[in-house]
Amino acid sequence: MIYRFATATLLAQGVVAGRKLESCTTAGVATCFADASDGVEIELSAGTLSSTDGIDSNTQLALWSKYASIACSEDGGACVWQGVIGKRVVWIKDNGGTSTLKGLTIKSGDISQPGGGLYVRNSNVVIIIVAFINNASTHGGAIYVSDSGSTTLTLQGCSFAGNTASVNGNDVFNSEETVTIGGCPEGKSIRPFVPP
Predict the structure, then answer these.
(1) pLDDT band at 13 (very low <50, low <70, confident <90, very high)
(2) Where are the domains of the chain?
(3) If exposure means fewest CB atoms within 10 Å of the residue's CB, which of 25, 37, 151, 164 is most exposed?
(4) 73 vs 172: CA distance, rounded Å
């Protein structure tokens, strides 16, 4: 199932108020993020991201050293961040604020490292109504939370299907950071880090 989040709902909740709103295509989100200033709200039109942004050879979309809110438009259709074999889908690193992802589908990341769908390091991230589908990695098939720096991750209304990890945590692997889960299925595949 593909999920999206209406921007009108964000406006009603005051999430967008006071921020600059940028409209971008899903395929062009990397360029849009690179050109944006901290705290911008990026509204994506329906489509598919399926090629690397060129920042990192192991990652389709690298959202580094900046924070933003990225949401799928209310205009209809789905915003899909599609992975490929040998790459995770998205990596959020050193964001310096709070990044929010809303109404997206993150699918088919496949890497022999942690975090097939999403890798979070030294960042504050809120994930709202995002579907993680068929991602694969060593730890955290869907999501890997690194213990490098300080990270908080909040999941609200997310779903997980078909994610796999060769070592541990098919859906979420938390490496000693703060992860809050609300309204998401907390299946047996969600694993905290356990020191040896």
Answers:
(1) very low
(2) 7-192
(3) 37
(4) 27
